[in-house]
Amino acid sequence: MTTKHEILIIGGGTAGITVAARLLRKGYRDVAIIEPSDTHYYQPLWTLVGGGQAQAQQTARPLASVLPKGAVWIRSAAKTFDPERNTVTCTDGVSYSYDVLVVCPGIQLDWDRTEGLSETLGKNGVSSNYRFDLAPRTWDLIRNMTSGTAVFSMPTGPIKCGGAPQKIAYLAADYWRRTGVLDDIDIHLVVPTPRIFAIDAIADSLEKVVADYGIHLHTGTELRSIDAAARKVTLAPVGAAGSETILAYDMLHAVPHQSAPDWIKESPLSTVYTGGDPNGYVDIDKHTMQHVRYSNVFALGDAGSSPNSKTGAAIRKQAPVVVANIDSLLTDRPLTAEYNGYASCPIVTSAHDMLLAEFDYSMQLTPSIPGLDPTVPHRSYWYLKKYGLPALYWNLMLKGLA
């Protein structure tokens, strides 16, 4: 027997909860969320955990405490879609039908796509702030290091919080400077892009930060493999011929390749279905967030194909668009709400300064705080990152109020 819900949401993360809260505030009463996890995480703070500026327990709350009242919680995991019949089947074999489907299960961390990474993760001097249990391990490595070589890497392809791979390098360098050992540590920051950031004014500012810390910046390069036994990494050029570089390390902060969950990739909702992006995100119109083939399916957040930076700030702007367009669809009106690609990338550059890059699809800066130059770090931005944004998240965003 199939249970029917008017609006079915896949994923109880930032996007799913925010959309559900907004729908309930708009008057919809039959809203269900499929989510297997019992814990909800505020992931943007994991960088500060790894940098010794926050505690891991601050980032986790029971999912039941943040789900909007009135939403039905289906404690299972989605497995397959049948958009022709408007049904979703979960791993426990139970199927659910819907009038409107919202797909936002988050992103998949593909640790195995970097040779040697999954086997050595969490040991042999290797950590990653992209896992809740490993962010404290990153801080252990940083605070116990007094000399040697530290490598911080970023993979090719879209990832959530694109600034995170470089932020932890700056926090580490700042700590090592404050404890008097920076000159004894050889820091390497490996990024696959031509510059440290896609917007020139931001890149100019961050390159000054890199130079000030004495960080060796490897652009157009990615971490190809890890030899944990020898404590060496292989760096390779991206998209062009060139020689590989073997680099010994004492500490490695590695960020995995990322993609849509495999069960999304294998579904008719995926970009793979039509021979598009092999990362397999849900194939949506980048402005309306509506699926390009199934009009009663929407997606937002990290699993959507919209070419914005994958951040919580993007979700905060996408959610009202999705809710408005769902309302238009169910009341037989044209979809007029549009998302402009807004994203915000808070880049901490020390234990007391942060740069806040806000931009849209055109990569034009769209600052929201008057009086502060968005291209340079400020102390007031740091307080926003550590205190303001978490308060906004827990108290307003997840409740459909911001």
From TrEMBL:
InterPro entries: FAD/NAD-bd_sf (IPR036188), FAD/NAD-binding_dom (IPR023753), Sulphide_quinone_reductase (IPR015904). It comes from the Bacteria. GO terms for molecular function: FAD binding; sulfide:quinone oxidoreductase activity. Residues 6-307 form the FAD/NAD(P)-binding domain. GO terms for biological process: sulfide oxidation, using sulfide:quinone oxidoreductase. Transmembrane segments: none annotated. This is Pyridine nucleotide-disulfide oxidoreductase.
